[in-house]
Amino acid sequence: MAKESESKVTTDHDEIRRWVEERGGHPARVKDTESKNSPGLLRIDYPGFSGEGSLEAISWEEFFEGFDENGLAFLYQDETKDGKESRFSKLIARDQ
Predict the structure, then answer these.
(1) Which of 33, 56, 61, 68 gives 40 a disulfide partner, CB atoms 3.0 to 4.6 angstroms apart?
(2) DSSP H stretches of helix in 1-96
(3) Where are the beta strands (DSSP E) in 1-96?
């Protein structure tokens, strides 16, 4: 039986958005990485974390456009090993 602390992977936009928003996060990109054909380097930003100053907020629409175009998947964890809500997530290639 899988433990909740194990990582999960999804490409479902609604699931990703729900998970991030439940933890107070929002879609973002690394500043000055966007171009005409790309939204830039995508990130999930949480208030008060180290991304301040280097990230800028973007819309979910823009985030998911880049997410799908780049063949990304969302790796995440619901709870830490000690049962607390986890904010661990990262963007990975879908074919990993």
Answers:
(1) 33
(2) 13-22, 60-69
(3) 8-10, 26-30, 42-45, 55-57, 72-76, 89-93
State the angle between helix axes of 13-22 and 60-69 in degrees (0 to 180), rounded to the nearest 10.
130
What are residue 38's phi and psi, to 5 degrees? -145, 140
Q: Contact, 94 vs 73, CB < 8 A? A: yes
pTM value?
Answer: 0.84
pLDDT one-digit tens code per residue, 30-73: 998 888 778 889 999 987 776 567 899 999 999 999 999 999 99
Which residue matches tokens 């990230």? 55
Task: Give the tokens for residue 30.
Answer: 């690394």
| 96 close to 70: Cβ distance less than 8 angstroms | no
